[in-house]
Amino acid sequence: MSVEVIKTISPNTNEVVITRNGASAADLELLPKVATEAFLEFRKTTLKDRQDIVRKFLDALDKHKDDLALELTTQMGRPIAYTAKEVTTAIKRAEYLLKLSNEVLQDVEGEPEKGFKRFIRRAPVGPVLIIFAWNYPYLILVNALIPAILAGNSVILKPSPQTPTVVEQVAKLFSEAGLPNGVLQYFHCGSPSLMETIVRDPRISLICFTGSVAGGLAVQQAAADRIVSVTLELGGKDPAYIRDDVDIDWAAEEIVDGAIFNSGQSCCSIERVYVHEKVHDDFVAAVQKVLKGYKLGDPFDKSTHIGPVVSKRSKETIESHIQDALKKGAKDVTPENESFQNPPPKGNFVKPTLLTGVDHTMTVMTEETFGPVIPVMKVKGDDEAVKLMNDSEFGLTASIWTKDVDRGYELCEQVDAGTVFVNRCDYPSPDLAWTGWKNSGRGQTLGRFGFDAFVKSKSFHIKDYPK
């Protein structure tokens, strides 16, 4: 049988930059076997032992962050000015989870009772399969990997073909930090049928998936014939509402950054902007002014703000959303910007695009665009804004922009999303739960609840021997 060759194509040049051999059926039979054997030993280690390993890993990750940043820019196209920050942010996030583990992984004492010792142990679940996306691979990975290791589980990683070296680097650095053999494994795969095989494997105790809704549904369906936990972090169509009392220039800067950073390729990017009719025109003018200061171009140029999108297919999807909106009456009011008009010739470059006159008949307001597009819709007030914000199959994040913070809080209470912001956006906080509502996912990472998927409760009733 021929070996599957997985190719990583540069978003910047559309040339192949990395090839990897895909896993075989025999490989996928062996991985859970090794993971199970390793788990039986690793679960006997102390929390302190595991914490020490994680600390050494994070120290090594920090020392290599510049090399890792270069790999990210090469593979997924984010400008080099920003890729190292992903690694440092991932380290800070992991350090918080490390600190939190002292509390959340301890035994929970039962009510005092004479002659009894009773408590709940937070036991590891077993081998964990983590399937994760390319757009923020280190940040996404630490959300699941660090709690999994700290809880005493073994882990199998499956990366996106777009960023294959992430798992290789992580596995190498964890091994050097002292993680026992077999506790952390990885494989590359582009075959849906082989992926279905490992998802169905009864030796896998937990599946954590980050990616598209379609991918999440496929994983859920493949796992449906047995009792296994599946956590899903999927897409978003995140709304922002600009009230009429806000500082327009400040809000415009924040919204542009929240919408087009990483070329808009984030599940929590702002993809819908609702603006009070009293300030609509001023807000659009302010956004135009901000966009004039952005540079679209070569991601290896440190002055570049916006690089290419990940693939030709992604570029086509984004452009189809824009064209659908224009055909239905929207207007492209993107300002003149030389870099927007003259991007590098080979890559998948999409100019940041500002649209007005949009509505919910347009795909740009209903389907995940995952690109540098800012669609702005005029609203009459709070009630209409909230109704439109909730008119979506997604519910990851939402933001309210206002001087009246108390009113912003009241509106957040009415919005259907796992994370709601007032005067902020696009920021998963490590001390709060990161969770999607509706088709944005199931389960949660980060914060004290971010450990829950990786442990199972085991109740102990210890009675004194009768004398």
UniProtKB/TrEMBL annotation:
Record-annotated membrane-spanning stretches: 128-150
Pfam families to which the protein is assigned, alphabetical: Aldedh (PF00171)
Keyword Lipid metabolism attached: no
PANTHER family: ALDEHYDE DEHYDROGENASE-RELATED
InterPro entries: Ald_DH/histidinol_DH, Ald_DH_C, Ald_DH_CS_GLU, Ald_DH_N, Aldehyde_DH_dom
Name by which UniProt lists this protein: aldehyde dehydrogenase (NAD(+))
GO molecular function annotations of the record: aldehyde dehydrogenase (NAD+) activity
Higher taxonomy: Eukaryota, Fungi, Dikarya, Ascomycota, Pezizomycotina
CDD domains named among the record's database cross-references: ALDH_EDX86601
Residues annotated as catalytic: E233
Protein origin, superkingdom: Eukaryota
Reaction catalyzed: an aldehyde + NAD(+) + H2O = a carboxylate + NADH + 2 H(+)
Family: Belongs to the aldehyde dehydrogenase family.
Keyword Transmembrane helix: yes
UniProt KW keywords: Membrane, NADP, Oxidoreductase, Transmembrane, Transmembrane helix
Enzyme Commission number(s) of this protein: 1.2.1.3
Residue ranges, annotated region (Disordered): 327-346
Domain (Aldehyde dehydrogenase): residue spans on this chain: 4-459
